[in-house]
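Q: Convert this sequence to structure tokens.
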Amino acid sequence: MNSITDFVTTLAEELVQSERHGTARSYISSIRRLNLFMQRDTLTFDELTPALLKQYELHLYADGCKRNSVSLYMRMLRSIFNQACRRGIVTPVIGLFDEVFTGTDSSEKRAASPNVIKRLSEVELGEFSELIFARDIFLLSFFLRGIPFVDLAHLRKSDIRMGVLRYRRSKTNRLLTVALEPCAQALFRKYAALTKDSPYLLPIISRPGSNEYRQYQSALRLYNKRLARLSEILRLKTPLTSYVARHSWATAAYRQGIPVAVISESLGHASEKVTYTYLASFENRTLRNANRKVIALLDFKEEKDSSFSKPLFLKSKNNVFQ
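A:
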């Protein structure tokens, strides 16, 4: 049997031909990381076992990877394995990935409050002119219902008709329709002169038709770098990233009482389950605050109330909490 690396190489070539550069890169990155762990590139699908994957997971944590990063590596490997199964290269193995984390850790706060976004829109950046475009792109992403950077970069002038934007999400290929509010229209007009000879709405891909994926990747890195600088200027505890605008829109919508089903449709999610991962950290904070308010009704005064000065569980022969 050929190695997993050989299969991924072929798979990546097919994806590139289908213009799915991001997925191809993720597959290649995941197998390179696994090969680094194995110290060889000859691992076969038959050698993949729950025990090996668990060892690999522990190695990633020890190497400093966060839970969401570990989950991404595992999900990519699972996707590669499933594609090999569909092509008849390997026999499906029930529960192969059951012992490793493949979910989303929502404990990492990603949303910025409307107050932070308002501050961002009003901050004076005269001496930091290179940050203005990054700020405007972040705001535009928020104004367009959390549109991802990759989709912003590929918006075409033909996508706007009669004040309505229609585009397909690069990740899911779902067609989304967004009525343009004046704030979004103003930002598009602001950069219209810079895209006079381009089919694109924004000056992110400056050389259409010339290795556009590499241009996008370079622009994304620069965008996040400048968002980090903006976060420092605003003295934010949670730094802005390309994902924050999307999470911020979802959280703000939820706080306004908009149903999750509507938020999910607005973001172009494949299911509401994905949307709930966006909102989980907000839910946790809301529930914690609710619990505090309920407990506060009891008006505990632990330091003064002698009834709480004694241990809750006295030692005895029958004390199971001893």
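Confidence is low (pLDDT under 50) at residues 303-322.
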